[in-house]
Amino acid sequence: MTRIVHLSDLHFDRVDPVIVEALKAEINDDPPDLVAVSGDLTQRAHRHEFKRGAEFLRSLRAPVLAVPGNHDISYINLVQRFADPFQRWRRYVARDLEPTWYDDTVAVLGLNTARRAALSLDWSNGRFGMRQLVRFRKRCEVLPDHLVRIVVAHHALHPPDAEPDLDIVGRGDVALDVFRELGVNLVLAGHHHRGYMRGHEPVASWTHGLLVVQASTATSTRLRGEPNAYHRLNVEADGHVEIEVRAWDGHRWREVAAREEGAPRPKRLKAPFVQPMVAEVARRANAPAGLG
Ligand SMILES: [Fe+2]
Protein backbone atom coordinates (compact mmCIF):
# COMPACT_ATOMS: atom_id res chain seq x y z
CA MET A 1 0.00 0.00 0.00
CA THR A 2 1.16 3.53 -0.74
CA ARG A 3 0.09 6.41 1.45
CA ILE A 4 -0.24 9.82 -0.14
CA VAL A 5 -1.10 13.21 1.35
CA HIS A 6 -2.72 15.52 -1.18
CA LEU A 7 -2.37 19.27 -0.53
CA SER A 8 -3.53 22.07 -2.81
CA ASP A 9 -3.66 25.84 -3.04
CA LEU A 10 -1.49 26.55 0.00
CA HIS A 11 -1.05 30.19 -1.08
CA PHE A 12 1.95 31.31 0.91
CA ASP A 13 2.00 34.06 2.24
CA ARG A 14 -1.78 34.47 2.54
CA VAL A 15 -1.93 31.63 5.06
CA ASP A 16 -3.09 31.10 8.60
CA PRO A 17 0.16 30.30 10.46
CA VAL A 18 -1.68 28.27 13.10
CA ILE A 19 -3.15 26.04 10.40
CA VAL A 20 0.24 25.74 8.69
CA GLU A 21 1.93 24.57 11.89
CA ALA A 22 -0.90 22.15 12.72
CA LEU A 23 -0.73 20.71 9.19
CA LYS A 24 3.02 20.25 9.41
CA ALA A 25 2.63 18.53 12.81
CA GLU A 26 -0.11 16.19 11.50
CA ILE A 27 1.88 15.16 8.46
CA ASN A 28 5.12 14.71 10.37
CA ASP A 29 3.44 12.73 13.17
CA ASP A 30 2.40 10.13 10.63
CA PRO A 31 4.42 10.72 7.48
CA PRO A 32 3.04 9.37 4.19
CA ASP A 33 5.10 7.86 1.38
CA LEU A 34 4.53 11.00 -0.69
CA VAL A 35 3.10 14.50 -0.36
CA ALA A 36 1.48 15.56 -3.66
CA VAL A 37 0.93 19.32 -4.07
CA SER A 38 -1.48 20.35 -6.83
CA GLY A 39 -0.39 23.93 -7.38
CA ASP A 40 -0.80 27.49 -6.12
CA LEU A 41 1.96 27.20 -3.56
CA THR A 42 2.12 31.01 -3.52
CA GLN A 43 -0.32 33.91 -3.59
CA ARG A 44 1.42 36.28 -6.03
CA ALA A 45 4.58 34.41 -7.04
CA HIS A 46 6.72 36.77 -4.96
CA ARG A 47 10.19 35.62 -3.99
CA HIS A 48 9.45 35.70 -0.25
CA GLU A 49 6.31 33.60 -0.83
CA PHE A 50 8.27 30.97 -2.72
CA LYS A 51 10.87 30.94 0.06
CA ARG A 52 8.22 30.37 2.73
CA GLY A 53 6.38 27.77 0.63
CA ALA A 54 9.55 25.86 -0.18
CA GLU A 55 10.62 26.00 3.46
CA PHE A 56 7.29 24.45 4.45
CA LEU A 57 7.63 21.67 1.88
CA ARG A 58 11.20 20.95 3.00
CA SER A 59 10.03 20.71 6.61
CA LEU A 60 7.79 17.72 5.78
CA ARG A 61 9.14 14.27 6.58
CA ALA A 62 8.19 12.84 3.20
CA PRO A 63 9.17 13.21 -0.45
CA VAL A 64 7.21 15.97 -2.19
CA LEU A 65 5.91 16.04 -5.76
CA ALA A 66 4.57 19.47 -6.74
CA VAL A 67 3.22 21.14 -9.88
CA PRO A 68 2.66 24.89 -10.38
CA GLY A 69 -0.70 26.67 -10.39
CA ASN A 70 -1.77 29.94 -11.98
CA HIS A 71 -0.81 31.88 -8.82
CA ASP A 72 2.76 30.64 -9.15
CA ILE A 73 3.27 32.85 -12.23
CA SER A 74 3.69 36.58 -11.60
CA TYR A 75 0.80 38.88 -12.57
CA ILE A 76 2.90 41.92 -11.67
CA ASN A 77 6.25 41.29 -13.30
CA LEU A 78 5.09 40.86 -16.90
CA VAL A 79 8.62 40.66 -18.28
CA GLN A 80 9.25 37.62 -16.12
CA ARG A 81 5.78 36.25 -16.84
CA PHE A 82 6.42 36.13 -20.55
CA ALA A 83 10.18 35.56 -20.64
CA ASP A 84 10.49 32.83 -18.02
CA PRO A 85 7.24 32.32 -16.09
CA PHE A 86 8.45 29.39 -13.98
CA GLN A 87 11.89 30.75 -13.10
CA ARG A 88 11.08 31.13 -9.41
CA TRP A 89 9.29 27.78 -9.25
CA ARG A 90 12.40 26.13 -10.68
CA ARG A 91 14.69 28.01 -8.35
CA TYR A 92 12.79 27.51 -5.11
CA VAL A 93 10.57 24.44 -5.55
CA ALA A 94 11.79 22.02 -8.24
CA ARG A 95 13.59 22.14 -11.56
CA ASP A 96 11.13 19.71 -13.12
CA LEU A 97 7.69 21.23 -13.74
CA GLU A 98 6.22 17.80 -14.52
CA PRO A 99 7.88 15.38 -12.12
CA THR A 100 7.23 11.66 -11.81
CA TRP A 101 7.45 9.67 -8.58
CA TYR A 102 6.95 5.96 -8.24
CA ASP A 103 7.33 3.05 -5.87
CA ASP A 104 6.29 -0.62 -6.18
CA THR A 105 2.57 0.26 -6.17
CA VAL A 106 1.94 3.64 -7.80
CA ALA A 107 3.30 6.00 -10.41
CA VAL A 108 2.45 9.65 -9.72
CA LEU A 109 2.73 11.93 -12.73
CA GLY A 110 2.70 15.71 -12.46
CA LEU A 111 1.21 17.83 -15.26
CA ASN A 112 1.65 21.59 -15.43
CA THR A 113 -1.57 23.31 -16.55
CA ALA A 114 -0.57 26.90 -15.63
CA ARG A 115 -0.14 29.13 -18.69
CA ARG A 116 1.53 32.53 -19.12
CA ALA A 117 -1.35 33.75 -21.32
CA ALA A 118 -4.56 32.64 -22.97
CA LEU A 119 -6.74 33.76 -25.84
CA SER A 120 -9.43 34.80 -23.36
CA LEU A 121 -8.99 37.73 -20.97
CA ASP A 122 -8.88 35.38 -18.02
CA TRP A 123 -5.40 33.85 -17.88
CA SER A 124 -6.02 31.95 -14.69
CA ASN A 125 -7.92 28.99 -16.12
CA GLY A 126 -5.03 26.92 -17.41
CA ARG A 127 -4.89 24.43 -20.21
CA PHE A 128 -3.64 21.05 -21.35
CA GLY A 129 -1.51 21.34 -24.49
CA MET A 130 -1.60 18.77 -27.27
CA ARG A 131 2.19 18.35 -27.16
CA GLN A 132 1.97 18.02 -23.40
CA LEU A 133 -0.59 15.20 -23.72
CA VAL A 134 1.61 13.49 -26.32
CA ARG A 135 4.54 13.68 -23.87
CA PHE A 136 2.28 12.40 -21.11
CA ARG A 137 1.30 9.42 -23.25
CA LYS A 138 4.96 8.62 -23.82
CA ARG A 139 5.65 8.92 -20.08
CA CYS A 140 2.85 6.41 -19.39
CA GLU A 141 3.92 3.98 -22.06
CA VAL A 142 7.25 3.27 -20.36
CA LEU A 143 5.65 2.58 -16.98
CA PRO A 144 5.30 -1.01 -15.77
CA ASP A 145 1.67 -2.13 -16.30
CA HIS A 146 1.04 -3.09 -12.69
CA LEU A 147 1.53 0.43 -11.24
CA VAL A 148 -1.57 2.40 -10.23
CA ARG A 149 -1.43 5.64 -12.23
CA ILE A 150 -2.12 8.93 -10.51
CA VAL A 151 -2.07 12.38 -12.14
CA VAL A 152 -1.41 15.58 -10.18
CA ALA A 153 -2.44 18.84 -11.91
CA HIS A 154 -3.62 22.19 -10.63
CA HIS A 155 -6.77 23.13 -12.52
CA ALA A 156 -10.24 21.69 -12.06
CA LEU A 157 -11.32 18.92 -14.43
CA HIS A 158 -14.98 19.10 -13.43
CA PRO A 159 -17.03 21.89 -11.84
CA PRO A 160 -18.87 21.03 -8.63
CA ASP A 161 -22.58 20.13 -8.97
CA ALA A 162 -23.68 23.23 -7.07
CA GLU A 163 -21.67 25.59 -9.30
CA PRO A 164 -21.77 24.18 -12.81
CA ASP A 165 -20.53 27.43 -14.34
CA LEU A 166 -17.17 27.43 -12.57
CA ASP A 167 -14.41 27.29 -15.14
CA ILE A 168 -12.62 24.08 -15.89
CA VAL A 169 -9.22 23.64 -17.45
CA GLY A 170 -8.89 24.04 -21.20
CA ARG A 171 -9.01 20.74 -23.10
CA GLY A 172 -10.05 19.04 -19.86
CA ASP A 173 -12.37 16.70 -21.73
CA VAL A 174 -9.57 15.62 -24.06
CA ALA A 175 -7.22 15.10 -21.12
CA LEU A 176 -9.79 13.01 -19.22
CA ASP A 177 -10.28 10.74 -22.23
CA VAL A 178 -6.51 10.41 -22.67
CA PHE A 179 -6.22 9.56 -18.97
CA ARG A 180 -8.95 6.92 -19.22
CA GLU A 181 -7.33 5.39 -22.28
CA LEU A 182 -4.00 5.16 -20.46
CA GLY A 183 -5.52 3.53 -17.38
CA VAL A 184 -5.12 6.48 -15.02
CA ASN A 185 -7.01 5.69 -11.80
CA LEU A 186 -6.87 9.01 -9.99
CA VAL A 187 -6.50 12.71 -10.76
CA LEU A 188 -5.59 15.01 -7.86
CA ALA A 189 -6.39 18.67 -8.52
CA GLY A 190 -7.48 21.93 -6.89
CA HIS A 191 -7.82 25.60 -7.98
CA HIS A 192 -11.38 26.52 -6.92
CA HIS A 193 -10.83 26.02 -3.17
CA ARG A 194 -13.68 23.55 -3.14
CA GLY A 195 -13.38 19.88 -2.23
CA TYR A 196 -15.36 17.21 -4.08
CA MET A 197 -14.86 13.96 -5.91
CA ARG A 198 -16.38 12.64 -9.05
CA GLY A 199 -16.16 9.21 -10.53
CA HIS A 200 -18.34 6.70 -12.26
CA GLU A 201 -18.93 4.48 -9.25
CA PRO A 202 -19.28 5.02 -5.48
CA VAL A 203 -16.03 6.48 -4.26
CA ALA A 204 -15.89 5.12 -0.70
CA SER A 205 -13.92 2.16 -1.97
CA TRP A 206 -12.76 3.01 -5.41
CA THR A 207 -11.38 0.22 -7.55
CA HIS A 208 -12.40 0.87 -11.13
CA GLY A 209 -12.31 3.66 -13.63
CA LEU A 210 -11.13 7.19 -13.22
CA LEU A 211 -11.76 9.25 -10.11
CA VAL A 212 -11.15 13.00 -10.05
CA VAL A 213 -10.38 14.36 -6.58
CA GLN A 214 -10.60 18.12 -6.18
CA ALA A 215 -9.15 19.58 -2.99
CA SER A 216 -10.07 22.69 -1.05
CA THR A 217 -7.26 25.01 0.00
CA ALA A 218 -5.09 23.47 2.70
CA THR A 219 -3.85 26.64 4.37
CA SER A 220 -5.11 29.80 2.63
CA THR A 221 -7.27 32.36 4.41
CA ARG A 222 -9.15 32.94 1.15
CA LEU A 223 -11.95 30.43 1.63
CA ARG A 224 -14.85 29.86 -0.74
CA GLY A 225 -17.53 28.80 1.73
CA GLU A 226 -15.64 25.67 2.77
CA PRO A 227 -13.11 25.02 5.51
CA ASN A 228 -9.43 24.41 4.84
CA ALA A 229 -8.96 20.76 4.00
CA TYR A 230 -6.60 18.17 2.60
CA HIS A 231 -6.66 14.48 1.71
CA ARG A 232 -4.97 11.32 2.90
CA LEU A 233 -5.11 8.51 0.37
CA ASN A 234 -4.27 4.83 0.79
CA VAL A 235 -3.66 3.20 -2.56
CA GLU A 236 -3.54 -0.61 -2.81
CA ALA A 237 -1.71 -2.50 -5.53
CA ASP A 238 -5.03 -3.65 -7.05
CA GLY A 239 -6.08 -0.02 -7.56
CA HIS A 240 -8.30 0.13 -4.48
CA VAL A 241 -8.14 3.65 -3.03
CA GLU A 242 -9.39 4.88 0.31
CA ILE A 243 -9.67 8.63 0.72
CA GLU A 244 -9.87 10.47 4.00
CA VAL A 245 -10.83 14.15 3.88
CA ARG A 246 -9.41 16.12 6.80
CA ALA A 247 -10.79 19.60 7.44
CA TRP A 248 -9.82 22.37 9.86
CA ASP A 249 -12.58 22.95 12.42
CA GLY A 250 -11.12 26.18 13.79
CA HIS A 251 -8.99 24.39 16.36
CA ARG A 252 -7.72 21.15 14.86
CA TRP A 253 -7.79 18.90 11.82
CA ARG A 254 -10.65 16.39 11.83
CA GLU A 255 -11.91 13.74 9.45
CA VAL A 256 -15.05 14.82 7.57
CA ALA A 257 -17.23 13.07 5.02
CA ALA A 258 -16.06 13.16 1.42
CA ARG A 259 -18.35 15.09 -0.93
CA GLU A 260 -19.20 12.81 -3.77
CA GLU A 261 -20.75 14.44 -6.81
CA GLY A 262 -23.04 12.86 -9.36
CA ALA A 263 -22.43 11.46 -12.79
CA PRO A 264 -19.90 13.22 -15.03
CA ARG A 265 -21.26 16.45 -16.42
CA PRO A 266 -21.96 16.83 -20.11
CA LYS A 267 -18.82 17.59 -22.02
CA ARG A 268 -17.99 21.24 -22.50
CA LEU A 269 -16.30 20.66 -25.81
CA LYS A 270 -18.62 19.30 -28.45
CA ALA A 271 -18.13 15.53 -28.46
CA PRO A 272 -17.16 15.42 -32.17
CA PHE A 273 -14.03 17.47 -31.36
CA VAL A 274 -12.89 15.39 -28.41
CA GLN A 275 -12.32 11.95 -29.93
CA PRO A 276 -10.29 13.19 -32.94
CA MET A 277 -8.01 15.10 -30.55
CA VAL A 278 -7.57 12.02 -28.34
CA ALA A 279 -6.74 10.00 -31.46
CA GLU A 280 -4.30 12.69 -32.58
CA VAL A 281 -2.47 12.47 -29.23
CA ALA A 282 -2.08 8.70 -29.75
CA ARG A 283 -0.98 9.15 -33.37
CA ARG A 284 1.69 11.71 -32.49
CA ALA A 285 2.94 9.65 -29.54
CA ASN A 286 3.43 6.65 -31.82
CA ALA A 287 4.88 8.63 -34.74
CA PRO A 288 8.59 8.16 -35.54
CA ALA A 289 10.90 10.64 -33.78
CA GLY A 290 10.75 14.09 -35.31
CA LEU A 291 7.20 13.79 -36.58
CA GLY A 292 5.46 14.06 -33.19
FE1 LIG B 1 -5.46 28.36 -8.97
TrEMBL record:
It holds the Pfam family Metallophos. It comes from the Bacteria. Keywords: Hydrolase, Iron, Metal-binding. Gene3D superfamilies: 3.60.21.10. The keyword Hydrolase applies. InterPro entries: Calcineurin-like_PHP (IPR004843), CNP_phosphodiesterase-III (IPR050884), Metallo-depent_PP-like (IPR029052). Residues 3-194 form the Calcineurin-like phosphoesterase domain. Belongs to the cyclic nucleotide phosphodiesterase class-III family. This is Metallophosphoesterase. It comes from Chelatococcus sambhunathii.
